[in-house]
From TrEMBL:
<dbReference type="InterPro" id="IPR014757">
    <property type="entry name" value="Tscrpt_reg_IclR_C"/>
</dbReference>
<dbReference type="InterPro" id="IPR029016">
    <property type="entry name" value="GAF-like_dom_sf"/>
</dbReference>
<keyword id="KW-0805">Transcription regulation</keyword>
<dbReference type="InterPro" id="IPR036390">
    <property type="entry name" value="WH_DNA-bd_sf"/>
</dbReference>
<dbReference type="InterPro" id="IPR050707">
    <property type="entry name" value="HTH_MetabolicPath_Reg"/>
</dbReference>
<dbReference type="InterPro" id="IPR036388">
    <property type="entry name" value="WH-like_DNA-bd_sf"/>
</dbReference>
<keyword id="KW-0804">Transcription</keyword>
<feature type="domain" description="HTH iclR-type">
    <location>
        <begin position="7"/>
        <end position="66"/>
    </location>
</feature>
<protein>
    <submittedName>
        <fullName>IclR family transcriptional regulator</fullName>
    </submittedName>
</protein>
<dbReference type="Pfam" id="PF09339">
    <property type="entry name" value="HTH_IclR"/>
</dbReference>
<dbReference type="Pfam" id="PF01614">
    <property type="entry name" value="IclR_C"/>
</dbReference>
<feature type="domain" description="IclR-ED">
    <location>
        <begin position="67"/>
        <end position="236"/>
    </location>
</feature>
<keyword id="KW-0238">DNA-binding</keyword>
<dbReference type="InterPro" id="IPR005471">
    <property type="entry name" value="Tscrpt_reg_IclR_N"/>
</dbReference>
Length: 239
């Protein structure tokens, strides 16, 4: 399929933005992903930074910019968040635990939707909460399917290992026990965009006493089913 609009500079800028969907990207990675010359990519990226369509993280890598979030909000809809609401309520009711959707933003993962357990001991993660990409089952899911270079980078100082991430890819879900916070367990599964790329993680979290020391054995099936339903909703929305 020809993706050219006939306006070269717009097409090239779109290629740069598309390449940033997977997460923080160096200039060299952008050049490789777009097939454009280094001076062209540098010039386009800096122009996009000027307009806040692209930003930079603490390591100087390029990331999708804050203006895109503002524009998405202004459009009045975010299909994933809208679709996630009722699915997270069903997941919470099925498991009895708080449920969330996380997206990666730079060096953090951000809770973009949640359904809290109404009573009793619970793991409260309000929408907008930034958590580390170095611990927790959602972080494992958001990292497990990255390319080799980003995978190695993400494993630096992480609480999980390459072997754990290999298991996540094999099973299709992740679990954690006290990784992010002592006494808290979680189970997560990947949400994929229309292109097939992992763009978010569906999670449940709560005290180890309730989720047990093998929370994936108890809850992975329903968490994976919810993530698959959200993936399917995004496919339909993209038709």
């Amino acid at each position: 399929m020809d993706t050219s609009s006939g306006v070269g500079v717009i097409d090239k800028a779109a290629m740069v933005l598309d390449s940033l969907e997977a997460g923080p990207t160096t200039l060299a990675q952008l050049v490789a992903a777009t097939g454009l010359s280094r001076p062209t990519v540098h010039r386009l990226a800096q122009a996009l930074v000027h307009h806040r369509l692209v930003g930079k993280d603490m390591h100087g890598r390029f990331v999708l910019g804050s203006r895109l979030v503002e524009l998405a909000s202004a459009a009045g809809e975010d299909r994933m968040i809208a679709a996630a609401g009722p699915l997270l309520l069903q997941l919470r009711d099925a498991t009895g635990e708080s449920s969330q959707v996380f997206r990666r933003q730079g060096d953090f993962r951000v809770c973009v939707a949640s359904a809290e357990r109404p009573v009793g001991l619970r793991d409260t993660i309000p929408v907008g909460t930034q958590l580390s990409m170095k611990a927790g089952s959602a972080a494992q899911v958001l990292l497990a399917w990255e390319d080799h270079e980003r995978l190695l980078e993400g494993l630096g100082n992480a609480r999980f290992t390459p072997t754990i991430l290999a298991g996540v890819r094999r099973r299709g879900w992740a679990q954690s026990l006290g990784e992010r916070e002592p006494g808290v367990a979680s189970v997560s599964a990947p949400v994929r965009g229309p292109s097939g790329r992992v763009i978010a993680a569906v999670s449940i979290s709560g005290p180890i006493e309730r989720l047990t020391r093998q929370p994936g054995r108890v809850h992975s099936e329903v968490v994976c089913r919810t993530a698959a339903a959200l993936t399917e909703a995004l496919k339909k929305g993209g038709d």
